[in-house]
Design a protein that fits this description.
This protein is mainly alpha-helical and 539 residues long. The protein has three domains: 127 residues, no CATH class; 144 residues; 226 residues, no CATH class. The protein contains 23 helices and four strands. Strands 1-2 form a two-stranded antiparallel ribbon. Helix 6 packs antiparallel against helix 7. It is globular. It starts with 11 loop residues before the first helix and ends in a 6-residue tail after the last helix.
Length: 539
């Protein structure tokens, strides 16, 4: 018999993921969505989605630990208040609790007119304590509503400058509040200078204050220069604001070593130790600041940054999807190359030639490689030509920007693309070599092709299985399909290193070359040793 309620066949994690991905609206106009009343069911920013999903996973982990009997997203809703209260009890920053409340509000579609809106979302967002009276709460809610209405009135009246000015005023208020908090922390440090918790709080307050100052600088630039709404400069400034928001979120989530070990179940599943946690988080923080630096360089030098260029350069990033096809192509031609000679008995015609056996096999191997590389190069050229014909070639002359040694560096875009194409080709050539070896050793086309496809798809499954392991970057499986993270433009990818991080996953280019090179050599040794020494007359 099947399940009585097939609606909840998916686990809680999958239900939440499906719900959140249904709301993705990257590239759509938020202003139009607001006008149509559909913005509550949409997520317009990649960074917002990543941030929401990160904190929603924390909530799901809480449900799994505290309420394992709960298997539906609808059933988990009643534990939202308990979760937010537990986060507040953990002495997380108000900003983090606010963000998590907003994430859950988006997940469950909680709106101001909902019955449980105040207790679930708005209270943490406004930092309302339990000591406030109903009148005080109502006043705060009213003020917040008025502020939002004031901000949007400028947009609705097509007065973008007014909107920006109001944003500056709001940010200045936040800056003053953070300065007061910092002064309070400094006073506490005078009494307790050895406190690690206070030192961490000071670092967070200083970092958040600096980020707010950066956001003020952005809005001031937008206001004083009369930046046109939805221009490429405006979109670049928006991305910079998102980077500062991500920086604040990550910084406020930074915990002390004592707290790290105290909540081992919460952190140690993903990190080997506090040193790794601290190193990776600091790297993520620096990535956000580097992205802001790239944004300013882009604006000051008239270089439309890659992530916001809705033209040929951004279209070319889609070439990564082609590498799955290239892998299949390489597996098929390699699987047929030698085994078909045995099946058709034409292998005897090759071996009676004066050329030595290793030369015969080498020629077939090189023909497979050259055919695959020719396909990749021709496809890249066709992809580029189609993009140019559709979107024009104006932006191809603009450089790719990245940060090296604290300075923004320009790099030729086409060269940047070609480096990534060649890098991704390494995994295709390995799959080709492995299938070629199977074809040579087993002399069965079906088995050779199947083994290649099995290796490709199993690597995806194994990569998913070890995704949260600290060993992920040291294992060979992630590098069997390098294109899955090399072309991820959400991360700054320096040409010298090719790739370092993809989302929350850490990969190492050096290990990619080591693993693929070593496995390729082993496969070739087996193939050539078998072909040169085995008597084919008995096949």
């Amino acid at each position: 018999m099947g399940r009585k309620n097939k609606t909840y066949y998916k686990d809680l994690h999958q239900q939440a993921y499906d719900r959140l991905t249904e709301m993705l609206a990257f590239g759509e106009s938020k202003k139009e969505a607001v006008a149509e009343g559909t913005e509550k069911d949409k997520i317009f920013s990649v960074n917002t989605y990543k941030s929401y999903w990160k904190h929603i996973k924390y909530f799901l982990r809480f449900i799994k630990q505290k309420h394992p009997e709960c298997t539906t997203l609808k059933g988990a809703k009643k534990y939202v208040n308990e979760w937010l209260q537990s986060r507040a009890d953990e002495e997380l920053s108000a900003w983090t609790v606010q963000l998590e409340a907003k994430a859950l509000g988006k997940l469950y579609g909680i709106e101001p007119d909902d019955e449980d809106y105040i207790s679930t979302v708005i209270c943490p967002y406004l930092e309302i304590s339990s000591n406030y009276t109903i009148t005080e709460i109502t006043t705060k809610l009213h003020n917040q509503t008025q502020n939002i209405e004031t901000l949007w009135s400028g947009v609705e009246a097509l007065d973008y400058g007014s909107y920006c000015k109001n944003q500056i005023t709001t940010l200045q208020y936040d800056q003053a509040a953070k300065q007061s908090e910092l002064e309070a922390i400094n006073r506490q440090l005078e009494d307790n200078p050895s406190s690690i918790e206070l030192a961490m709080s000071k670092r967070k307050a200083e970092g958040v204050k600096a980020a707010i100052e950066g956001k003020i600088e952005i809005q001031t630039y937008r206001y004083q220069n009369g930046i046109e709404f939805q221009s490429w400069v405006d979109r670049t400034l928006d991305i910079m604001l998102d980077k500062y928001d991500a920086y604040i979120s990550k910084l406020n989530g930074f915990v002390t070593e004592e707290y790290f070990h105290k909540n081992g179940d919460y952190y140690e599943w993903a990190y080997a130790d506090y040193g790794e946690y601290s190193t990776l988080l600091n790297a993520e923080l620096q990535d956000q600041l580097d992205a802001v630096a790239i944004g300013w360089y882009s604006i000051n030098n008239g270089v439309e940054e890659l992530s916001v260029a809705g033209s040929t350069r951004s279209n070319m990033l889609g070439f990564s999807d082609m590498f799955t096809f290239f892998a299949f192509f390489a597996i098929v031609i390699a699987g047929v190359s030698v085994s078909s000679e045995h099946v058709t008995r034409t292998i005897y015609l090759l071996l009676i030639r004066p050329a030595k056996r290793y030369k015969v096999l080498l020629s077939k191997y090189l023909s497979c490689i050259l055919t695959t590389l020719a396909l990749i190069i021709l496809s890249f050229g066709a992809y580029l030509l189609a993009s140019v014909l559709i979107c024009g070639a104006d932006d191809l002359s603009l450089p790719y920007l990245f940060v090296s040694d604290g300075a923004v560096v320009e790099f030729d875009f086409l060269r940047w693309m070609l480096l990534r194409v060649l890098y991704c080709s390494a995994s295709v050539l390995f799959l080709l070599t492995m299938t070629f070896t199977a074809s040579t050793v087993f002399r069965n086309t079906a088995f050779a092709v199947s083994s290649g496809l099995f290796t490709f798809f199993s690597s995806i499954l194994l990569s998913t299985f070890f995704r949260n392991s600290t060993l992920y970057g040291y294992l060979p499986f992630p590098y069997f399909n390098i294109s899955s993270f090399v072309f991820n433009d959400l991360v700054t990818l320096a040409p010298e290193t090719i790739s370092r991080m993809a989302g929350e996953i850490v990969v190492y280019p050096t290990f990619a070359f080591i693993w693929l090179g070593a496995l390729t050599v082993v496969c070739l040794i087996i193939a050539f040793a078998t072909f040169t020494k085995r008597d084919v007359t008995n096949t």
